[in-house]
Amino acid sequence: MQIVVDTHTHTLASGHAYSTLLENAAAAQRKGLKILCTTDHAPTMPGAPHYWFFNNQRIIPRFLNDVGIIRGVEANTLNTQGDIDIHPQTEQLLDWVITSFHEPVFAPASEADHTEALLNVIKSGRVDALGHLGNPNFGFDIEAVLTCAKEHNVAIEINNSSLLGHSRAGSIECCDAIARIGKEIGVYFTTGSDAHFCADIARLDLAAALLEKYQIDEEKIITSSTQRFLNFLLLRGKDPIEEFADLY
């Protein structure tokens, strides 16, 4: 399976990443990506940029090194009510919103609390994808959350970094269960390198292998073509991106 979109990447603006957007785009071109989503951490994460950083992404060219650039964010799920740390005004200026649990922002609690938070963030309509759900520190009712995600057209991320074994240790078995159950339910999947250094841009081999293990239909993998990814954004209610007309 070919993956042509990386939907989860960071620049040095995140505070604990080490490459610029230009370096990431150059790496994306070398590795054959067609679209790169830049998704720096939202303001509540320690070291993350001010909200003006996200509001000003409109100045980023739509193509860098012949790679389409999606203006995004990795927001933080803040509480069981499903609040995220992106101002509603900012949302209107972004193409792509992932939200994730991060220990410095949402202290690990009970499975019931994590499930409630995820269900509420999905139902809020404010997020396009749920990031690195395999983290065992944030166990949740997989069937309930993925069923809700399907109903609301929220993508489930298979995070390659989680599958490497050194980030969010213990995620591999959880990611496997998420892929298996997600196949049964029929969710949309997305794939993210979660790169914090340009060499890891488009490093999606483990995520692709997990999706292939469960023979997940490419129609459900939104990163398997530019058309599928951009049409998913339309499904989410986003406006067409005029500059990407040839990619639809």
Automatic annotation (TrEMBL):
Output the Gene3D superfamilies linked to this UniProt entry: Metal-dependent hydrolases
Per UniProt, residues of the Polymerase/histidinol phosphatase N-terminal domain are 5-79
Which GO biological process categories is it annotated with?
A: bacterial-type flagellum-dependent swarming motility
* Cofactor section: Zn(2+)
> What's one GO-annotated cellular component?
cytosol
Q: Which SUPFAM superfamilies match?
A: PHP domain-like
List the protein's name: Hydrolase
Give the organism the record lists.
Answer: Vibrio renipiscarius
